[in-house]
Design brief:
182 residues; mainly alpha; two-stranded antiparallel sheet; 2 strands
Length: 182
Amino acid sequence: MAKLLSEQELSRFDELQKKQSNFSITIEEADELREIVLRAQQKRESRAAAMTTIDAHIVQFEISPEELFTREQIADAARAFGLLSQVKKERVVGPIIVLNGKQHIWTKTLPEEVRDALFDAFKAGNSITAFVAPRQENAKVAEIVARLERETATACTDDALVELSVSREAVDKIKEKLGSGA
């Protein structure tokens, strides 16, 4: 009922309901209470009809949930309704850089000593495999190369890409995303 009424209507509804429970409600107030309930029922029926129409259109035009919502929105809704309560929301983590055995997540910035060593090796054309954390997805490795190319204005050699098991297309695709601010 609360979702169907405005703040003012809900307040008045509560007030009139209390009077009714105390048997101190007048005929006019009882009529007002009925009108508030009737408006709420009409809103509920209106929303139900709209949902039925939307459902019919979804079926008629064979629209999948993925066409209406992103995977994140679907997962968030499933969590909100308790369908995925045991599954935590997956956090997007940047690529992992390793220096002196210590791992660093490359979010917006890297510690200066890590950044200097990685960028110097990359600009000199040396292998950066030692900086790439093991068992990292190819997309994360491609992101490292794309960020390095973008920030140093130096292209990664084909040999280095082969050594890292990353394709030029994957790196270019990520560079496009980084360039658009995604």
